[in-house]
Amino acid sequence: MVISSARFDFRRDSSNLKKLADTLDRAGIAANPRDIAIGIGIGTVVLWLMVAFVMRPSPLIAILLFPFCAALAAGGFWMYVKFQLRKRLDQFVQQLELALRLIASGVRIGLGLRQALAIVIEEMPDPARHEYMRVVGQTNIGVTVYDALDNLAVRMPSNETLMMARAIRIQSQTGGDLGKILEHLANTIKERRRIQRKIRALTAEGRASAAILSVLPPFLTGFIALTEHDMGHALLFTNAGHISLMIVAVLETLGVLMLIKMLKVDV
Predict the structure, then answer these.
(1) What is d(CA 127, CA 115) in angstroms, rounded to the nearest whole number?
(2) Of residues 98, 223, 113, the one with CA closest to residue 167
(3) Burial category of 225 from C-beta neighbours within 10 Å (exposed 0-12, middle 13-18, buried 19 and up)
(4) What's the N-to-C CA distance of the chain in angstroms?
(5) Using one digit for the tens of pLDDT, what is the confidence trace for 75-106?
(6) For residue 125, is the peptide bond before it cis, meaning its omega torsion is within 30 degrees of 0?
(7) What is the phi/psi pair of residue 173, to 5°?
(8) N or C: which end of the chain has fewer CB within 10 A?
(9) CA distances from 200 to 6, 110, 193, 261 (A)
(10) What does the alpha-carbon distance between residue 230 and residue 221 come to, in Å, rounded to a whole number?
């Protein structure tokens, strides 16, 4: 029973590491999980020493701050990964219109779908080149081009990529002019991008409010510490002040996340 449980935990840990490595690859981050764990550990220690030097907490509060600093370091790295992943996905979606037009042009001159995908690899930069190279590479080991495109839609999750994969698969089953279908899809993606730019313009005020709310508390804390020495000392060097700062940090984070969620519009 103990051996079976250990094997299960090993498989689960291996699965989690594989998911992490896949996420890093999708985000375009060239690092392995071991180096990341070491970096988070170093960041935790550095952050904890900085907080301890500035706030000079009691030993009990200092011990309680260490897991808090570890959570901040891990959360900061995960936010960086999510930012890079979202940035790379946005770049891929922006390249998708041109990629579809290149594929449509290749199909219209008599090339097969796989050969048309090779044109995208030759003509376009990363991340489109890298992702379509993976598609062609999967076809080289026996995966159908339609399944490879479905895998692309999973790696680069967006409505545009899913529409491309489904449109090509449906055309293979029902027939029709694939070049014309891809041209129409490219025009649809172009219109979606125009609407998304309009939405970003309309929500710019809310996003600016979220940014100001995230910057205001640290600014006020520093201002109070510099201008009101007694209040700053109570805020930075007493247990009550430390607890107040932690509560404010949690509430501020929740408020910013709520604003971001409210301003998110799916098209």
Answers:
(1) 19
(2) 113
(3) middle
(4) 51
(5) 889 989 999 999 999 999 999 999 999 999 99
(6) no
(7) -95, -30
(8) N
(9) 49, 40, 11, 14
(10) 13
Candidates 147, 151, 145, 142; CA nearest to 115 is: 145
DSSP state letter for 238: S
Residues 144-147: contacts with CB under 8 Å, at least 24 apart: 145/113, 145/114, 145/117, 146/172
What would the two tokens of residue 267 be? 């098209």
Distinct helix (H) and strand (E) counts, the chain: 11, 0
CA atoms within 13 A on the CB side of 148: 18
Angle between helices 178-202 and 59-108 (to 10 degrees): 140
- What type of residue sits at position 7? R
Helix 59-108 with 113-123: angle, nearest 10 deg: 120
Q: Which two tokens stand for residue 251?
A: 């509430």
Q: What is the pLDDT along the chain (267 residues), one digit of tens a residue?
A: 444 444 545 455 566 777 777 888 888 887 777 788 888 889 999 988 888 887 777 777 778 788 888 988 898 899 899 999 999 999 999 999 999 999 999 999 989 899 999 999 999 998 999 999 999 999 999 999 999 999 999 999 988 999 999 999 999 888 888 999 999 999 999 998 888 888 888 888 878 877 887 788 888 877 877 788 788 777 777 778 878 888 888 888 887 778 777 777 666
Q: Which two tokens stand for residue 221?
A: 């804390």
Find the length of the chain.
267
User: Per the confidence metrics, is the pTM higher than 0.90?
Assistant: no
Residue type, 154: V
**Nearest-CA neighbor of 117 among 148, 141, 93?**
148
